[in-house]
Design brief:
Blueprint (H helix, E strand, L loop, with lengths): L9 E5 L4 H12 L3 E6 L2 H12 L6 E5 L5 H15 L4 E4 L15 H31 L5 E8 L10 H21 L4 E8 L5 H4 L3 H10 L8 H12 L10 E4 L7
Parallel strand pairs: 1-2, 1-4, 2-3, 4-5, 5-6, 6-7
Helix pairs in contact: 1-2, 1-8, 3-4, 4-5
Length: 257
C-alpha cells in the first residue's frame, strides 16, 4: 500500500517552473497528483511540464500567470478548473527576493512591489482557490490544503532585507488566519519557512552570503532539493490533516543557531 498516493488529487504550484516550487512539484508528480503550474516564463513552463509529466501518471498543465495581477489569477483558476476539474492543494510558492536596500534607503515603490508579490499575491491566490474549496465543502466534498513558501527571515534578521522579511512575516500571519477561518471547511493552512537553498534567487546574491550561511547552519550545508519532494507530498496528503496554522522552519537548524 502506498501511504502517500495522490492519484486523483490536483495541486496548484505558483512559481512552480523552477527552484523550490519545481522541486516540490517533482514529489507531487511522483505521487500521482495532477499539477497546474502558474508562472510567467513560457519557456520554463514548457520545460517544467515536460519534466513533471515524465515522472508520474497525473496530468500536468502550465498557465501564464502573474500573481501581482488579480485578473491573471482569476483567469488561471478558471483555466485550471476547466482542464482538471477541481483543486485540492495549493502551494503559494511564487515570490521575489526583495529590493535589497538598507532601511535608510527604502523606497515606497520597492517596498510595495515586494509586498505585492510575496504577500498580496499569495492572499489573492488563496482567495480564488478557497472560493472553489468552500463551494465543494458546501456540496459535501470538504477539504483542502494551503501551503505557503515562507522564509526563515520572517523570524530572524538579515541585512538589507527588511521588505522581504516583512513580506514573509505577513505571509505567516496570513497562514494562521487562514487556518483558523477555514478549519470549518476542513481546509488546512501551513507555511514552510525555508532556510538557505541554492536557487536562481540565491545565485544572484553575493557569494560571500552563501559562505556565511554555510558556516551558520548547524548541519553545515544548504538544503537539498530532493528532500523537498517528500515534504511536499506529506503536506499535500491526508497524513497532515491534523496539522494547521503552523509555520515550520525547514532550514538545517539555522533559526536556532
Amino acid at each position: 500500500m502506498n501511504l502517500f498516493d495522490l492519484t486523483g488529487r490536483t495541486a496548484i504550484i505558483t512559481g512552480g517552473n523552477g527552484g523550490l516550487g519545481l522541486a516540490m512539484g517533482r514529489g507531487l508528480a511522483k505521487a500521482g497528483a495532477n499539477i497546474a503550474i502558474w508562472a510567467r516564463d513560457a519557456d520554463k513552463n514548457a520545460a517544467a511540464r515536460a519534466e513533471l509529466k515524465a515522472l508520474g501518471s497525473g496530468e500536468v498543465i502550465t498557465l501564464a500567470c502573474d500573481i501581482a495581477d488579480e485578473n491573471s489569477i482569476e483567469a488561471a483558476m478558471g483555466a485550471t478548473l476547466e482542464a482538471l476539474g477541481r483543486v485540492d492543494i495549493c502551494f503559494a510558492n511564487a515570490g521575489i527576493s526583495g529590493a535589497g536596500t538598507a532601511i535608510p534607503d527604502i523606497t515606497a515603490e520597492g517596498w510595495d512591489h515586494t509586498m505585492a508579490i510575496n504577500t498580496r499575491g499569495a492572499a489573492l491566490v488563496y482567495k480564488h482557490v478557497t472560493r472553489h474549496m468552500i463551494a465543494r465543502a458546501k456540496e459535501g466534498d470538504a477539504g483542502g490544503k494551503l501551503i505557503a513558501t515562507s522564509s526563515g527571515q520572517s523570524i530572524m534578521g538579515v541585512n538589507r532585507s527588511s521588505d522581504y522579511a516583512a513580506s514573509k512575516a505577513a505571509l505567516n500571519g496570513l497562514t494562521r488566519a487562514a487556518a483558523f477561518e477555514l478549519a470549518r471547511h476542513q481546509i488546512t493552512a501551513n507555511a514552510l519557512l525555508f532556510g538557505f537553498y541554492e536557487t536562481d534567487i540565491t545565485a544572484k546574491a553575493d557569494p560571500r552570503f552563501g559562505e556565511w550561511m554555510a558556516k551558520r547552519i548547524p548541519l553545515r550545508r544548504p538544503g537539498d532539493h530532493e528532500g523537498l519532494e517528500g515534504l511536499a507530498v506529506f503536506f499535500a496528503s491526508s497524513h497532515s490533516d491534523y496539522i494547521t496554522g503552523q509555520c515550520l522552519p525547514v532550514d538545517g537548524g539555522l533559526c536556532i543557531s
